[in-house]
Give the backbone structure.
Amino acid sequence: MLTDFISLLFPITCASCGKSLFKNEENICTYCIYHLPKTNFHLQEDNMVSKFFWGRVAIHSAAAFLEFNKGGNVQKLIYALKYNGQKNMGITLGKLYGHELKEQATFNTIDTIVPVPLHAKKEKVRGYNQSLYFAMGLAQSMNVPINNNSLQRVLISDTQTKKSRFNRWKNVESVFEIKEPNGLKGQHILLVDDVVTTGATLEACAHTLLQIPFVKISIVTIAFRP
């Protein structure tokens, strides 16, 4: 009763449409979940995200859950996750996509999930790594462990938002390194991030992870921004 009373005074709202959530809803209302602009890239081997990495880095497969629509509902969800402190948004989206990924042959052999890391100073300012929370949701629904220690960002890079594809790549080409590689040796790694635009950060991470013997890299993001 107390919880219901508090919810009347301080209603928890959907990050997409702003309407009050029901008891069984988390972060996003059922209506908005049903109307999410899904890419279905995990069903297409040669999808647009996979093509980003052709000739750049050897990956097994790649996909993105949603299509980023500027000013639309997906941008609101990403903004809530990254800048409004709604960490559980990442978990919710991860669980939703994980249920779909585990049914596909290209993704049901994943051994470990590795989130794209933030530099320690940047993570301290933000308070958390949004990609880790997306990884946590994926891990729950796919029943796969997370490795959040082996891939580390050792240099702080400038913001990527207004850079060209070449400058994005130059900005991150040597900012990652591997710690304790034996924990990932021979594994099929799922590398995850929030949004893929040019793929420069993910490419740099994948190249770093491929230094580990006998690994296979797949990539998944919350959203794809053409």
